Amino acid sequence: MKILVSLKRTADPDNANKVKVAPGGAKIVTDGLEPKLNPFDEAAVEAALRLTENGKARIAGDTISIVSFGPKETSTNIRQALAMGADGGLLFHADDESLDGDLVARAMAKVVESEKPDLVILGKQAVDGDSNQVGQILAELLQWPSATFAMSIELAKDKKSVIVGREVDGGVVKLKLQLPAVITVDLRIVSPKAVNNNVTPPTFAYPEGARYAPLPMIIKAKSKPIKEAPLASLGVDAGLKVKYDSFALPPARKAGKKVKDVAELVSLLRSEAKVL
Known about the structure:
It is a single chain. By secondary structure, the protein is an alpha/beta fold. 24% of the residues lie in helices and 26% in strands. The strands form three sheets. Strands 1, 6, 7, 8, 9, 10, 11, 12, 13 and 14 form a ten-stranded mixed sheet that branches.
């Protein structure tokens, strides 16, 4: 089985409060923030690894390739995924400002055509733009079945289909997809038994969350291949459909008020907050 996982690097989401807006609102400034793997994409890598393991080691013949679009420095983030256990990477050079969800999806479609994976896994969205578009557009371009916001994946024994669990307001909806397919994952996909490949013993439970790469795997990742090429080599139209006119920080929160009793609270909720 061959799995392709898409990655995006984002400004450190743990320090998002340090993001600033340039004078005049021209752009977002993330100076001083370390570029890290988008958390949902890191979960996608973990899901792919669990699909290709028996609980202890990789299954012979199964492979995981990583693809990313970004500046040359993105190779450092791809190495993180390789240290987790992925086999190789593809990096197509582009400035972050020259990409949008539609362009990334069209570029991904070209990569899928050449790599011919059985399954494409992506994070449900990137934590910087939050557009939540690439997986859906990609599936449409490929005319492949898709499931979004996956919280669980079960791979059939014959590796020809998957059952995907999606958390909705009323519970969990399960969808059966014939492979090849596109899946976008939510963070619940890295819970201990969220991924079942019908090879790993049912009694085995993974630790919660995406794995940390041990030192031997980090060293090994340095020798794994990353093929690099300009985005233009894929032959896609580089025109953008989404453009940002300006950015602005949300208004500062107003200070709260102290009330002497419940009656005054209810009165203020009615007259000022207008929520009652």
